[in-house]
Amino acid sequence: MPDILNWFGWCTWDAFYTDVTAEGIKSGAPPKFVIIDDGWQSVGMDPTSTEAKFDDTANSKKAATVRASDDFFPRDPASHTIHIASVAYNSVFLGEFMLPDWDMFHSLHPMAEYHGAARAVGGCTIYVSDKPGNHDFDVLKKLVLPDGSTLRAKLPGRPTRDCLFSDPTRDGTSLLEIWNMNDVNGVLGVFNCQGASWCRTSIKNLIHDQQPPTISSTIQPTDVEHLHNTAWSGWNGDCIMYSHRGGELINVGMNTSHPIQLKPREFEVFTVAAVRQLANGAAFAPIGLVKMFNSGGAIKQVCYESKKAGHVELRVRGCGTFGAYSSLRPKRITRDKLKEQEFDYDENSGLLTLDLPVPDAELYEWNLSVDL
Fold first, then answer.
1. Taking a C-beta distance cutoff of 8 angstroms, is the pair 84, 103 a contact?
2. What is the mean pLDDT of residues 316-337?
3. What GO molecular functions are on record for this protein (predicted)?
4. Mapped to the 3 state alphabet, what secondary structure does the chain carry?
5. pLDDT tens-digit profile of 245-304?
C-alpha cells in the first residue's frame, strides 16, 4: 500500500466547497496530505489533456483505494449511522481487492467521535474536511500522532460474522460490530446504528425512529477473525479486552461472551489481545496507547522471554499513556535499554500503564523492556 495512507490528511471540500483558493488552503491545519476538491467533475475531456491525466489518478486501475460509501453529510442527521453501516458492509466485497475509503468527516461535529472511532477500526486512510480553525483536537489526538502519522489497522474493517445477515440500522435489536487486526492484537468497534435508513421511495436517508432503542448484546474475542495468528503454539485461549471509552480491562476466555449495552448513536472500541503465559508463572498481554481509538496499532512487535524468564520486550510507536495487562507487578521497566521507566500498576485489574514522551523523530519506535 502507498505510504501516504498511513498519514493524516485534509480535504478542502467541506471547508470551502467550490470556493477553493491558495490562500484558503494555506490557512488550514498542517496535514501530511491534502485533497483539493472543488466539486469539479470531468465529462468527455480530451484523453491527452492535463485535466484528463489528473482525473485518471482516481481510477481504480492506478490507485490503491476506492470509495466505499456515499459522502459524509455533516448537515444531515439521518446520514451518520447509515454511513458507518454502509462502509462496513461494502468493505466485505471491496476489501478483497482494494482498500476501502470511508470518506472524510469533521472533527468538530456532534458525531465526530462516532465517525472517528469507525475510521480507526476501518483500516482506512484518516482525513477530515474541517474549516480552518474549526477543529476538535481532543478527537484528532485519538487518531493522529504528533508526527502526523496514524495508527491504521492492517485490514479493511468488516462486520463480524454474527452481523453479516442482520440489519443494525432498522431491526431494533442488533448492534454493528466491526473487527480488524494490528501487528500484535486485534480491535473491535461496536456501534448502535439504529434509527435511520435509506428510503427507496423518497430516495434519501430518513430517520424512521425518533427514539431508537438502547441495544444490549454480547461480544467475545472470536469476533476478531485472525486473533489466533497473534498467539503462539500451545495458547490456551485466554484473552483480555480493553474498552476505550470505559477504560475497563476484562479477562475472558476465547469463547467467553461479555455483555455490552449502547444507547442510540453510542459506540465502544475494544482492544483484544491474547494472553501469554510466561515461564515464571506471570501472564502478559499488550494493549497499546490507551487514549487512542485503535490503541493496539501503536505496538509493532512483542518478544517474550528471549533473554530470560519473565522478560518481555516491546517496540512501541507514538506517545502518551501506554497500557498492558500483567498478572504480576513488574520488577523493572526500561525505555530504549537505558532509561528507567516509571509506571503505575493496578493490583485488582492487572492494568500496567506508563507515559511515553513525544519522540524527536517521525515514526520513532520506543524499545520497552519489562521484567516480571
1. no
2. 96
3. galactinol-sucrose galactosyltransferase activity
4. CCHHHHECEEECHHHHCCCCCHHHHHCCCCCCEEECCCCCCCCCCCCCCHHHHHHHHHCCCCCCEEECCCCCCCCCCCHHHHHHHHHHHHHHHHCCCCEEECCCECCCCCCHHHHHHHHHHHCCCCEECCCCCCCCHHHHCCCECCCCEECCCCCCCEECHHHCCCCCCCCCCCCEEEEEECCCCEEEEEECCCCEEEECCCCEEEECCCCCCCEEEEECHHHCCCHHHHCCCCCCCEEEEEECCCCCEEEEECCCCEEEEECCCCEEEEEEEECEECCCCCEEEEEEECCCCCHHHHEEEEEECCCCCCEEEEEEECCEEEEEEECCCCCEEEECCCEECCCEECCCCCEEEEEECCCCCCCCEEEEEEEC
5. 999 999 999 889 999 999 999 999 999 999 999 999 999 999 999 999 999 999 999 999
pLDDT at 26 > cutoff 80? no
Question: Is residue 244 in some structural domain?
Answer: no
Residue 181 resides in a domain: no
The domain tally of the chain equals: 2
Smallest Cα–Cα separation from 241: which of 226, 256, 261, 263? 256
| Grid-cell match 448513536, residue found | 265
178 within domain boundaries = no
Residue 94 lies in a domain: yes
Tell me the per-residue pLDDT of 65-98, one tens digit each, with 9 for 90 and over.
888 988 889 999 999 999 999 999 999 999 999 9
Mean of pLDDT values over 161-182:
96
Residue where one domain finishes, among candidates 103, 119, 140: 140
Beta bridge partners of 293: none
Please give the residue range of the domain that contains residue 113.
3-140
The domain boundary, picked from 105, 120, 140, lies at: 140
pLDDT band at 37 (very low <50, low <70, confident <90, very high): low
**pTM to 2 decimals?**
0.89
Question: Which residues contact residue 266 at a Cβ distance below 8 angstroms, ignoring those fewer than 6 apart?
Answer: 191, 192
